[in-house]
Design goal:
With 424 residues, this protein is α+β, with helices and mostly antiparallel strands. The chain has helices spanning 2-24, 42-45, 51-61, 67-74, 80-89, 124-130, 140-143, 152-171, 185-190, 218-224, 280-297, 344-349, 373-383; strands spanning 27-28, 106-109, 134-135, 149-150, 175-177, 182-184, 204-206, 209-214, 229-232, 238-247, 265-275, 302-306, 318-326, 331-340, 352-354, 360-362, 364-372, 391-392, 406-407. Helix 4 (67-74) packs antiparallel against helix 5 and helix 8 packs across helix 13. It is globular, with a radius of gyration of 23 Å.
């Protein structure tokens, strides 16, 4: 049964992306279904003259990588595969301006004039419990901890957020794509999630499907379906968006990240883009502006931070986070981020474009979270709570909730777990 479901999923994905490729005039090579060999910038990384630059960058990012080992392998023809393996572990270079930041990064947009309440605002956990909007306990051994069920109006708000976000992205020129939740593990690694001797953040299917894993974000699937592609220069920037389930094996014992703030599975609307090598820095600003516009129109308060080097994942050249103000928690919490990955992913997946002179160049890839459902729900519920313990629906979401403007206590049945008595 699983094999049939997986095959139908793959067939649908191919049809879906074929339509995108035809519309955007993507020229795919004959082996577009195969994962290509990565092509690293060996001219730079294997040049002893760049040793100090690379070592300084790695130290700032706090990655345990050894550039000396790479330089040693360069002079050993028999160690070609070992050299490529070490090169693949290297993180992207870092935007020089980021190296100058302190440990907290740089605030690009401060959050001023915080909303004042005439009552003591509740946390999301308190609100969801009193209004019966959420269930996290007693979900059984299969779902396990860090799982949740949204109930009634909160489940409807999830769908409203998706529709609101997708419509605004499409008006910005993004093409909507449906993506799979199951990906080749190697694709996840090529996109920058290093899994060799590192803390695993993904769920591997194991057993007969050990080469497949659950996707952590739609970014990986979108990058996969562009691999081996030559994009028409006139179609850059190529802007794609996807709604997907995201699976994360990460855990946290922090009291600040309890509830649905950090969970193993959630829905997210993702932005993904390809640009030429000279336009990615400017396009990152565009992604940031889109995110700020999405949150501003919902009435959320937030601050925008250019993140320090040690907070960058392996693919990111630069990363900008948006942290929403949570009145109940009386603190900021991350709502979204956007990253410029330059040619880190495109070199590993062979995503290129042909410039006006006919030269094949690697595109720069960028990604950004347009809406991560759990954290958006937390921010909205805490921001729009009322003195009587209800929650006002943001004006922009009312049309997507059948005109509902306020969330009150849900009329749900008693869902206590009853143990079945063993037969004598």
């Amino acid at each position: 049964m699983f094999k049939k479901i997986l095959q139908r999923s793959i067939t649908y994905q191919k049809l879906n992306f074929l339509a995108i490729n035809q519309k955007k005039n993507l020229q795919t090579s004959t082996n577009s279904g195969e994962i290509p060999e990565p092509e690293f910038n060996e001219e730079f990384y294997c040049n002893p003259a760049n040793k100090d630059i690379i070592k300084n960058d790695i130290n700032h990012r706090k990655f345990a990588r050894d550039i000396d080992k790479i330089l040693e392998l360069v002079n050993s023809p028999k160690s070609r595969q070992m050299l490529l393996k070490e090169l693949e572990k290297l993180p992207n270079l870092t935007d020089p301006r980021v190296l100058e930041y302190n440990k907290s990064g740089k605030i690009l947009r401060a959050c001023e004039n915080l909303k004042k309440f005439e009552f003591t605002p509740k946390t999301f956990s308190e609100l969801s419990k009193s209004l019966k909007l959420l269930q996290m306990d007693q979900l059984g051994p299969i779902a396990g901890p860090k799982s949740y069920i949204l109930l009634g109006d909160l489940a409807q708000m999830e769908e409203a957020l998706i529709q609101y976000t997708v419509r605004r992205l499409m008006k910005k020129g993004f093409k909507l794509v449906s993506v799979p939740d199951i990906l080749p593990t190697k694709i996840i690694e090529r996109c920058g999630l290093v899994m060799d001797n590192e803390r695993h953040l993904v769920y591997n299917l194991g057993q007969h499907y050990d080469k497949l894993s659950l996707s952590g974000t739609a970014e990986m699937a979108l990058a996969m379906k562009l691999m081996n592609c030559e994009i028409n220069v006139h179609d850059l920037p190529l802007k794609l968006a996807a709604v997907s389930r995201c699976f994360r094996a990460e855990i946290s014992n922090s009291a600040d990240e309890h509830g649905i703030y950090r969970v193993h599975q959630f829905t997210k609307v993702e932005m993904f883009a390809c640009t030429d090598e000279n336009s990615s820095s400017e396009f990152l600003e565009e992604l940031k502006d889109i995110q700020e516009d999405l949150f501003t129109n919902l009435g959320l308060q937030f601050q925008t931070i250019d993140m320090p080097s040690h907070e960058l994942g392996a693919p990111a050249y630069r990363k900008i986070d948006i942290e929403g103000w949570l009145p109940g928690k009386k603190d900021f919490g991350e709502l979204s981020s956007c990253s410029n990955c330059t040619d880190y992913q495109s070199r590993r997946l062979k995503i290129r474009y042909k410039n006006k002179d006919g030269e094949l160049k690697y595109v720069h890839t960028l990604n950004g979270t347009a809406c991560a459902i759990p954290r958006m729900l937390i921010a909205i519920c805490e921001t729009f709570q009322t003195a009587d313990g209800n929650i006002m629906v943001p004006d922009k979401l009312v049309p997507f909730m059948n005109g509902k403007s306020i969330i009150e206590k849900q009329n749900v049945g008693d869902m206590r777990i009853y143990k079945q008595k063993k037969k004598q």
